[in-house]
Amino acid sequence: MEASKPDQGFTDSQELFEHHRFVVDRGQESMRLDKYLVNRMMHTSRTRIQSAAQAGNILVNDRAVKSNYKIKPGEIISIVLPDPPRETEILPEDIPLNVVYEDEEVLVINKAAGMVVHPGVGNYSGTLINALYHYFRELPMFQAGEMRPGMVHRLDKDTSGLLVIAKTELAHNRLAKQFFDRKTKRKYIALVWGDLEEDEGSIEGYIGRDQKDRTRMKVYPEESQGKHAITHYRVLERLGYINLIECRLETGRTHQIRVHFQSIRHPLFNDATYGGEQIVKGTTFTKYKQFVQNCFAILPRQALHAQSLGFTHPASGEEMFFESELPADMAEVIVKWHRYLEGRTGD
User: Which residues are designated catalytic?
Assistant: First the structure.
């Protein structure tokens, strides 16, 4: 039997799912697909595998099959599962959520900057997951211990904007498949340093961990060093030494927009991880430096907001689309740059 590593996972991508591939041994006796997978996937229950099959997330020789399918030697099995399991114990916390939309299957929220999505080293409480454990506490499946908050994508701590969360196992699987197949629609608004040469463009490369600093990502020229990533952008407004841009993602890699623009020497405004907290463009005048520092104080994070999100409803099949306003900190900085440009005299 051959089994590949997950193509996507909790640690490597903003999209929270995992992809496994198995080749059935030549000497394998016929057995139910769900039983076969349970025997080969640690910490994965039969119920979870059956839900994946019901959602169409298990393929045998590129064809969706049911969980009772009898496998045969030489067949290739592909399975997409949402939200890889975590070892960290999660406690519910009564943290307010900005709910944009909710029904029996999904919850859409507008995440504030500063909120971590998943518990991890240094952030074991106060996260979105802690908040969701409290928010979902009355759901029957959740009370029975058979459900966890259905995350299928995430945002960095200091990135604001829209996230969709599944409320049922089937919705979780179907949303994960949409993200895996790149059928969702996501648009981000950002402020970047410098004046981009083109009004529209695309940035492409392979994103992987920076070998010198594991907290950062890096764009590499070769596939062996990272995962393929594409960001499309359009300039919305040119504000002198910074540009207001719109980004559309084809892929969902960790820090994708941030590291892509850093790679073309246009880091996001006040992105401390990728050099945007420095005065990258502009004059040497003290007045200008003070102006930028004032903007940093208003916007103490990278200037990035997940403004719109589109997906197919996992139960009804209806096309859903949501938009959110720019957060106050980004909006205020844009107004300040307008005023600065209006009052600038020859610098």
Answer: 156
